[in-house]
Amino acid sequence: MGDENDPGRLYDLTAAKVSRVVLGSYSTSFGLGARLLDRPTREGIDAVYGLVRIADEVVDTRRGAGAAELLDELEQETARALRRGWSTNLVVHSFVRTARRCGIGHHEIDPFFASMRTDLTVRVHDRASYERYVYGSAEVVGLMCLAVFLNARRRRGEALRARDPHLERGARALGAAFQKINFLRDLRTDHEELGRLYLPGVAPERLCRHDVDTFCDEIGADLAAARAALPGLPVRARIAVAATVAVYERLLARLAATAPEDILRARVRVPDPVKLALAARAAGGQLLDQVASSRAPRPARARVVA
To answer: Which residues sit opposite 124 in a β-bridge?
Structure first.
């Protein structure tokens, strides 16, 4: 591995620090869970978030003339770096180190960039395009995070840990839930500032209680699927994901209890002290479950009678 006096290792560490700054600057909820992870896993999650956020900034903040070219350049650099294991873009460098270690490849990366590209061309989504967009922009990000949870501590030469289908369903559902919550609470700003309508059949001027309830039910089902997959995760990942799920469950409850006109008036949030309390309670619950499980008596082995 080397140390900080090794130029190659220093470059890797610098890239990892840049990705952590990106996560810390843009997300409190996601970052809160990440802080509960061990160092290698946290660095991997930082790296995934860093690339995802930069692409998102291209289409949401830079947007307009030249944005498509910038997104193409970012995707092409990511593909090149994935082959050679190195990039002059520190965020990309951090990501591809994680991708190569954890088994993230074009199966996840290509749909992600495809969804980002639709943000530059598609203004109104129907159900089919909405589902494609959610898969590429969020569900594959969940799959990337799952790959990190399972393989961030993998040593050179060790085989990748296979992704169980049940865990994959949970990872996709969690990514989808996070994205859909943001669709609902950002409905007005997405429409007025970015000119986009993500939720099929719903426009801000026509938002009603039935629309809110329908999408909250959809998000609730996603969060339930994600929670059902928690027991299959490594312990530290399970604690971190449980903390993040708890915060988003509270956010969903606030959305469900908010009048449609108020959802459009101000972005629904969970105050930071409440986030910390929810995360601590969820993490503590997982730790207690782990202790109880480790102390549970094991079934006695059957005696073999000759």
So the answer is: 197
